[in-house]
Amino acid sequence: MHEQFDCLIDSFIADKVGLSEDFLGEQLAAQLKAHLIELHVGQQFHSAGIGNQEVHHQDQSTRGDQIYWLDRQHKHPLENSFFELMDRFVLYLNQSCYTGISGYEFHYALYEKGSFYKRHLDQFRSDKSRAFSMILYLNENWLPEDGGELCIYHSDRVQTIAPLSGQCVFFKSSELEHEVLLTQAPRMSITGWLKVG
Hints:
Largest sheet: 7 strands, antiparallel
Number of strands: 13
Distance between the termini: 27 Å
Oligomer: single chain
Helix content: 25-40%
């Protein structure tokens, strides 16, 4: 597992965007996808908003995904398996890079066909606790014509990343604006933030 952690961290240091093609592992990624679908069929998702608890509103013209927050209090074995993986990664990140991460928050995200999320920054003006953004994709057999790419805006270029199953994307929440392009197929991920303070 440290090999995947190193891959993510090393590529982040080299290019401000960490990438790991098999961070979750094939089995866990498939199980989490099945769990996401089960929750969506059970109508457990809700439309995502913009902003934090202080300033929060829904705007379908900016953001069209639906979310379900993961929580240890659910006592679901798959959610707990994911949290155990994140605990190991945070420990390794803090030990190797002295990042001071003290917590995290993650949710399932589902973009149905025709959904997108316009260009934005993950860190709030009124809350600087989000240090790193992480996106872990759950889309098997994703095709170029399915769209839904993540576009990350560097100072000198735009980086485009396909939402392929098992892949993890990692970057500083305060530095890089990004967007999700229009998706032509249901697009599933776990999205969240490593936090300080």
